[in-house]
Structures are given as structure tokens and as C-alpha cells.
Amino acid sequence: MSSAAEQETVDEGVRLGAPAALAGAAGPQGHPAGAPARPVWPGAPTPLGARCRVGPDGVAGTNFALWAGGAEGVELCLFDGPGPSAAESRLPLTELTHGIWHGFVPGVGPGQRYGFRVRGRWDPWTGARWNPAKLLLDPYARAVDGDFTLPPQVYGHVRDWPEQHVADTVRDDRDSAPYVPKAVVVHDETGGPDEWMDDRRPKTPWADSVIYEVHVRGFTRLHPGIPEELRGTYAGLAHPAAIEHLTRLGVTAVELLPVHQFAHEDHLLRRGLVNYWGYNSIGYFAPHAGYAASGTAGSQVGEFKRMVRALHDAGIEVILDVVYNHTAEAGELGPTLSLKGVDNRGYYRLQQDARRYADYTGCGNTLHVVQPHVLRLITDSLRYWVTEMGVDGFRFDLAAALARSMHDVDMLSPFLAVIAQDPVLRRVKLIAEPWDVGSGGYQVGAFPPLWTEWNDRYRDAVRDFWRGALPDVRDLGYRLSGSSDLYAWGGRRPHASINFVTAHDGFTLRDLVSYDHKHNEANGEGNRDGTDDNRSWNCGAEGETDDPEVNALRRRQMRNLLTTLLLSTGVPMLVAGDEMGRTQGGSNNAYCQDNETSWLDWSLPDGEPGGGLLALTRRLLALRHAHPVLRRRAFFAGRPQAPDGLRDLAWFTPQGAEMTEADWYARSATLALFLSGRDIPGRDARGEQVTDDSFLTVLHAGHEPVDFRLPGPPWAGSYELVVDTAREEQEEAPGTVHEGGAVVAVPARSVLLLRVRA
């Protein structure tokens, strides 16, 4: 239907007797909830948000500043307490500087709850969706009090309008204030950024990093060593029992699933579910209040900082999974919570038909990062989390959407350019999820130096090898050795590849070897959600089984996948619970399962499902930390570093011969690589040549054992067996010695790691 015809339909609806409150009658802007109780002084346009400060004549108060470039007026709304019955006072902000409405309110301090109402045109056909009946969350709010429950009143349009195809054009003038969370003024701690000076951070080099992807709530919710009142919270993750697991495991960084304040989608709330993962942000400066044990009146900020400090004290960095590509306001039929009501056209990418949103994310909207004020919002948020909250890096969800200029992904885009020159952000860890759902959005290997990337080509190649689906071993060779075909350009190093076999999105490690098909029925979407491209193998039975042979094979396959990951060149990423054989019952999209499906089961280390997995993980990470040859800082050259040396990397067939070009193209279930510890490029901090032991890794995915001839001199005179994934128990190294040139039987579906004896 054309815009004119749709407008006529809406007008007809009003004439036919639509309630005045729903049809655009005079809204609350004409009837303030209360006369201004405080004076509003001019204040300053910076910094944005609410900041406690000392005003003229030494008067303490709070400065409020909101960018709303196209608005006709802004009211600051102060609430005298928590809950829907709190009295509201509306204070007009009359000062306007470069699109920023601002004012200083004497006497307002930490703990004050507030929001904004923004006046302007209601003209969805041109993208204008101002509606002063809707209380808006400050985009710069540093703490949020309350939950987003999404009743009809929080929608800028009439959500239940009979003609849904035009519902977004009918303004809803019901007051949303009783139904939405409020921003909270937060105390500015003394000391500021000095608290997070570089010498207080772990600063783990990329090449030495091991990332552990973890959900704050799910990791701690069932932990028996954490007090009940702290489980599921930032304080729980900071508890010594939680940190002990991380340090004993050997990881160097936790990558937290989203902790920005987020909202639950309406379709989930209607089904009695919630957004558990949190990829639905609405407050880019506020720690999600639902993870705070200390309350939601601003104390969540201090609790988050204490968590970061505790992790830093244990030598563990904190990386945040951040969602700047879209917000919880969805598309034209979504709620009006913040940016949509502040300046819809200024914050979101719109289609040529400005009623509709450009959606490169699959979530209904896309932030318009090319706009300077949107870019400022994102970079201000990033700097805030580094300088004031202490975090060490970020993983950017659907980063390709942020790298789009007007339409296409552009590696010279404003977002990437700003990050590259920012003196704070260019020094922290930056991880791209290098794709989005739009045209041309798949950009693995394309991000510029300074960035690392989730390498899904590593994931797919390793999964396919161990399930016997690779046509040859060419791709696997690249993935095991750092993916130089993707990253050896522009000064990039092997650490540009974040290697992973599993992630939050998809099967767990145990489910990867237990299910051929996804089982997402509990999500209530008819099992249509989640990918069908799992590259999994159930080892002979779908789901849980009592068959001892199937279970033994599954345990071995988990050990194979894990060992491959932790011995590969690049930065490994583990998913919390995989080291203990955690299952989600075959769900590969547990984004809405805030229950035992997603929470870590801490009884697993003592049970059968892991099959020695936890001990093996600890041993492999200890080996990785001890041996620089397993965490190289430069790509392999395929040649010796010294005249009497060996090639730094060599590949062998089961016959003990170096692989030829033809071998790479032949179908094979066996691949072996030799890493020379005498031929590591680079020097240590004192300028000395780095040397290490040499290792031979044999990966065999065949269903029958294979005889493998170990390379003899000059590669090695003898070898000591260090890891054998065919063994159930991995507490101690096997220790068996084999002479170079000897033939060893490699068990079916197993990995052997052998160290060259001096």
C-alpha cells in the first residue's frame, strides 16, 4: 500500500471513532505531571548524560545533556523514588548547543532516577517518531533501575491497532513512565581513570592469550562454592571459588556475553521466556542490572568494577561482547524505549521508505554509525568501559554492520578509522565477529591490522575433519598453522585468528558429538530457529544413550576436538563448561533458556560425560603456556632460522615422508605436523633468541588404527609421548619413548602429541 493510501486508512480509523488517547489527541506535553520543583541552570553540553559536578557558586548538582538534533523540545523527568507510583517532576531543558539539549539542576545527586521526554513531529512516513508521552532512557545512562516488560503503553504507536500493516503510523499517547525502567544518576568516584592504569592490568600479549567465553549468570548460578545470594551476579564471578576454576584451568581472559543493559523481546515475554544471552542492548554505558547482587540504584556500577579488579588480581583480563550494531527497539513495530524517541532518523539506518528500517542484523534495526553523533555514542561508550570500568577489550557482535559506510562494508569506514586513531581504544584487545546478515556482509580475513577475528573457517574445517567430511587436508593445514591465507597481510600475525570449535551460538562440545540435528523445541519456534549447518556427528545415536561404545567414542571425540584447538597456532577460545562436558540437550540456540539448559552443571567434573576432559584441558593449557613454539608470534616461514636448523614447520604422511603437493589434494584421514623449537623467529625481552622443545602432532580421524612412521634424523632421534587422546585418563603424561624412524600404531580417531627428546 502506498504511503498516501496508508495515511488515508489511518485517518479513516480516527474518524470512525478510535479512542482519542490512541488517535493522536493532546498528549502529556500539555499536562505536566507536576510543576518544576527545581531551577534549571544552563549547564554545559558536555559530557553527555548525567554527571554530578559542582556548579556556579560551589553548588552541587547534576548536569544533564542529551543529543536530540531534530527535536523541538526536551524535558528532563525526575522521579522521587523507585517503582511505578513514583511522583514525576518535569523540567524543560531550554539550552541547545549543536543539537545537544542541556541543563544543570542544583541539588540533584547520586541515586536520582530520571528519564527524558522529547517533543517533535509524528510523521512516520519521513522517519519522524517523536512522542512525548513516552519516557525515554538516557542513551548515556550509567545505571538502570527496573525491568523492561513491554506492555502496550511503551510503544510509540498503537501496538494492537486492528490494521497491523499501518499500526506503526498511529501514535499512542498513553504515558509510558509507570512501565519503563529509569536511569539513575551515579556517583563519580575519585581517582577516575588512574584506578585502571596500565601497570594494574594483566596486559597479556595476544600470542599468549587463551579466551574463555562465559555468561555471568550461567557460570555462577549453580556453583556450590559461591554463596546463594551471589550466584548469577558480578559479585559471584568475582568470588574466589569462581576465580579458582579460571586460574586452575589456565585461561588468561574471560569474554563476557553482553553485560550492557538489555531488554527482552516481546515475542519471548509472551511465551514466558527471556533473552538469556543479552544480545538486545538498550543502554551502552550501564552494567545490566539483572546481574547485580548489590541492588539497582547505582550500586551495580561499583559491583562490576570490583569484579574486574578481582579478575585482574588473578591475572585474568576482561573482554566484553558488545552489541553496537542494533538496539532493543527493533523495527517500526518495536517499542519506543530510547533512541527511537530521541531522534529516530538520527540514530537508525532507514530505507528509502523512511517508515522502514535498514536491517543488516536480523534484529529489526541497524545503528547509523556513519552519523557523527552515533559514532560518538559508540566510542564514548567504549572509552568509558576501558577508562572508568577497567575492561581490557571488546568482541564486536556482527562487526561488519559497523564497518558499513552508506551501504557496503568498507574497511576504510568511519568506525574503523576512528578506532584506529583513538589513543585509548587502539591499545585494547579488539575482536570482530566479521560478518552480518546483509549483502556482502561476510568479511572473514578482511578486517585491518589491529583487529583479530572470530575464524569460523577454523571451526568448520576442524569439525569436518573429525567427522570425516573433508575432501582433502589443504584447508585443515592452513587452519592448524594460523590461517596465513587469511591473515598474513598488512602486518597481521597468527593471533589475528581467534580459533574456536564451539561458541555460545551453536552446539556445546558434548552436543557436537551427540547430535546430528538441532533440538530447539523449548524455544517455542517450531524448531525453525538456529542453524541447520552444524557439521556435527552423533557417533551412532541421537542424543543421550546407555551404549558404552557410543559414549566412549563421544568422549574421545571431545578430547580430539579440544586437543586440536589448544595445539593450533592462533588464539584459542573455549566456551565455559565445554571442559566439563556440558550439554544443552541438543539445543544449538539456547538464547532464551535462562535455566538448567544453559547454566553450568558443576557436578560434571566428577562424572562420566567429560571423560577426563577437565584434566586434559588443564594439561594442554599448561603445555601451551610453557612452550613458545605452541603460541608463535609470527607465521611459519617453511625454512630454518639458522644454517644448521630445520624448517620451522614440516608436514608428514603416515609413511614418515614429507608431504608433496599431491598429498595435499589427496583424501586423507591423517595429518602430522612437526614444529621446530630451534627455529622460532624473534627474540625475548632481553634480546635473546627464543628456543624451545620441538613437537610432532599426529591427527588421525580414521575409524581404524593407522601405522605411522615417526620422522627420524635430522628431525629427531627419539620422541616422548606427551598426549594420547585415546586414553581416558589424562592426569599424567603417558611418557612412552619411541625411536625416530619407528612405526607406531596410532589408535582410531585420536591425537598423539610427541616431544622430541634432546
CATH topology of the largest domain: TIM Barrel
Strand content: 15-25%
How large, in whole angstroms, is the Cα Rg? 28 Å
Mean pLDDT metric:
92
Within CATH, the superfamily of the largest domain carries the name Glycosidases
Number of domains: 2
CATH architecture verdict of the largest domain: Alpha-Beta Barrel
What form results from the Cα inertia axes?
Answer: elongated
The major β-sheet equals: 8 strands, parallel, barrel
Number of strands: 29
CATH class of the largest domain: Alpha Beta
Question: Could you give the order of strands across the largest sheet?
Answer: 12-13-16-17-18-19-20-21
Structural class: alpha/beta
In which range does the helix fraction lie?
10-25%
Distance between the termini: 79 Å
Low-confidence stretches: 1-31
Number of helices: 18
Structure description:
There is one protein chain. The protein is an alpha/beta fold and 758 residues long. It has two domains: 39-202 and 211-454, TIM Barrel, CATH 3.20.20; 629-757, Sandwich (Immunoglobulin-like). Helix content is 21%, strand content 18%. The chain is built from 18 helices and 29 strands. An eight-stranded parallel beta barrel has the order 12-13-16-17-18-19-20-21. Strand 3 (73-79) and strand 4 (88-93) form a beta hairpin. The radius of gyration is 28 Å and the shape is elongated. GO terms for molecular function: amylo-alpha-1,6-glucosidase activity. Residues 213-624 form the Glycosyl hydrolase family 13 catalytic domain. It comes from Streptomyces genisteinicus. Residues 22-38 have a biased composition (Low complexity). Residues 22-42, 520-548 are annotated as: Disordered.
